[in-house]
Amino acid sequence: MALAIEFRDVSKDFAGRTAVDRLTLGVEESQTVALVGPSGCGKTTSLKMINRLIEPSSGEIRVAGRSIGETPLLELRRSLGYVIQYVGLFPHMTVAENVAAVPTLLRWPKAKIEARVDELLDLVGLPPEEYRTRRPRALSGGQQQRVGVARALAADPPVLLMDEPFGALDPITRARLQDELKAIQRKLHKTVVIVTHDMDEAVRLADKVAVLRAGRLVQFDAPSKLLLAPADSFVADLLGRDRLLKYLRTVPLRALAMRETGREEEGPKLSETSSLEEALLTMLAAGVSSATAVGAGGQAVGTVTAARIVASATAAVPH
Amino acid sequence: MSLGDYLQLYGDQVAWLAWQHFLLFAISLGGATLIGIGLGIAVSKERAAAAVAVPVVNVLQACPEVVLLALSIPLLGIGFEGALVPLFVKGVLPILRNTASGLESVDRGMIEASHALGYAPRQVLLRIELPAALPVIIAGMRVSAVMLVSVLTLTAYIGVESLGTLIVQGIARMDTAPLVIGSLLTAVFAVAVNYLLVGAERLAARRLS
Predict the structure, then answer these.
(1) What was the ipTM of the complex prediction?
(2) With CB atoms counted within 10 Å of each terminal CB, which end of chain A scores lower, N or C?
(3) Separation of alpha carbons A193 and A191, rounded Å
(4) Which member of A77, A87, A91 has the closest CB to residue B116?
């Protein structure tokens, strides 16, 4: 697949300190890539080099196959949606005016802008007739962040850059917005680069995770690969001792549930789309060692045992 | 002479002096606003401008108005220009200071977001930064405006006609009527200007919250 964003041997020095060290990384079209690592690892710097908020010291970054220096700066930025942690909404503008920021810069006709604003507010779950004329300060943190996402998507950019977008939200709101981002992603197929220090968020949202340490790329893999086979102890520590549980979180029950004669229905029932982790936790809570997966209509599709879940994780770990 | 008698005799002249006072005020506040905001932007954006402007501003700020007026006579002569320039300088300062500090206090994340969305630098300034700093800028204008209304009376000493002319006449002739009328009108003018701009400031701030 074509690369939407490509880092080629990119470095960035700040006054003698190397923030990003010869980073080479490709993001495929419609993929979500998470940049993770501890503070100061260069993840935000890397992100900001894509839309040239920061200029690289050396190396080349390509967006849609073109070196970013070749595209006029404003044109480049308008093709890259941008969402940041503290939202950065414009307080003197209404919600609608905020969402319309880039279309206004692009001088879209008024009717087209209005239609687009309403469409986006619907998409992010803010009924337009209620929210259009509100001011950002009158919204909760989660609602502000939804407006931030709508604003970033306004001119339909192929790429979305997100810098700790949900970092300032409470855990419940964060989880909900993560789910919604995934739903939006399923609908729109944007290329997304998201910076986060939250490993759970990275595993949850990303197709591939890039782990950075002191400006260097340590590992670049799919979440399941990362969780099962961390490249070194640094990555393993970053993932936490519960990384295998996190792995189970990425596997749906459907993948393991089996029809066995004599045990069509056993233990608590769970949707076949819930994760193995959830199944294991449900069994633990109920004090049993097996559970039944049910389909959308409530019919049993198979059973799974705790032992088989454990065995599946063990088998998945490469040796 | 009673106040009523004085107004009956010299009412036209009082009105004309009040009008002159207003004109001087409007010109000096308008000019001070333009230059104050312009310099404020320069100071907040350019280190070099700040290095030159900040010490100059501090010295002028500390200088009493009367001294500035006195100094302007040998330089600019007696009359309209001689009065306007020092007033102007004094009026510029609060606006300059508030514009610079207002712009510096604008949320960095918001400015970065506007750059990232593809606003050109000029658009960031005009559409994002200045509107966000507006309440602080208006507060600076209010300080200038109130100061200008009262300091304008001093220009009577260098031959400019304003409400100050009545005060100077009153003092010179030991006549309370023009003295009281001149002072009262100046005070009312200052208070009115103050409240008008307080209102504008609140309006601008309400848009932000």
Answers:
(1) 0.80
(2) C
(3) 7
(4) A77
